[in-house]
Amino acid sequence: MKDASRSRRINDWASRQLQGTAARDSGSERRERTDRRRKKWWSILYGSFKPRRRRPARRFDDSRFHPVDWYSAHLLAVSVCILLLSAADAFLTGILLMHGAEEINPVMAALVYRSVATFAAFKMAMTGAGIMVMVFLARYRFLRVIRVQLVLYAVLTVYAGLIGYEIWMLKGTGELPLL
């Protein structure tokens, strides 16, 4: 009997609140005056050191984007390897250009012939931005077919092949300064 009367009181209070006739009791209000969602930088810093979202949201049928705060460690390893291979590619491209090779990419050609430092900075910035986006979207599918995480592995494989090709080209000229 006691539980039924308590649940009836809670239900009555809830229905009064929904109708807007519930009494405003300052002690029962649990919400803070400031909206926590307005603290963007605090949320970013706090979420970086104490992540909570390790999996997408519970509702998988939503078509909305569900970011997570915690990514797999292997994505960090793949990202760092891609960045290192990108730096090696920029270095080997500079050496190859000194020995008479030509840059095929027209955007990079415009940069590399002006300033090698600008070329390297632009290359690393574009590679880093692309990797960040791909890690952020690693759980999703590219063109609804292939997971973005697998695209990261494909980029890593292509970069490794490119470095191998550049080393092979340098061995052919006999000007390989590394080996």
Kindly describe this structure.
The chain is mainly α and 179 residues long. The mean pLDDT is 76. The chain has a two-stranded antiparallel ribbon with strand order 1-2. It has helices at residues 2-19, 40-49, 73-98, 106-112, 116-136, 148-173; strands at residues 141-142, 146-147. The protein has a domain at 73-173. 60% of the residues lie in helices and 2% in strands. The protein starts with a helix and ends in a 6-residue tail after the last helix.
Summarize the entry for a quick read.
The protein is built from six helices and two strands; from the N terminus they run αααααββα. By secondary structure, it is mostly helical. It has a domain at 73-173.
Features:
179 residues; 2 strands; elongated; 2% strand; mainly alpha; 60% helix
Q: What's the arrangement of secondary structure elements?
A:
Elements: H1 2-19, H2 40-49, H3 73-98, H4 106-112, H5 116-136, E1 141-142, E2 146-147, H6 148-173
Antiparallel strand pairs: 1-2
Helix pairs in contact: 3-5, 3-6
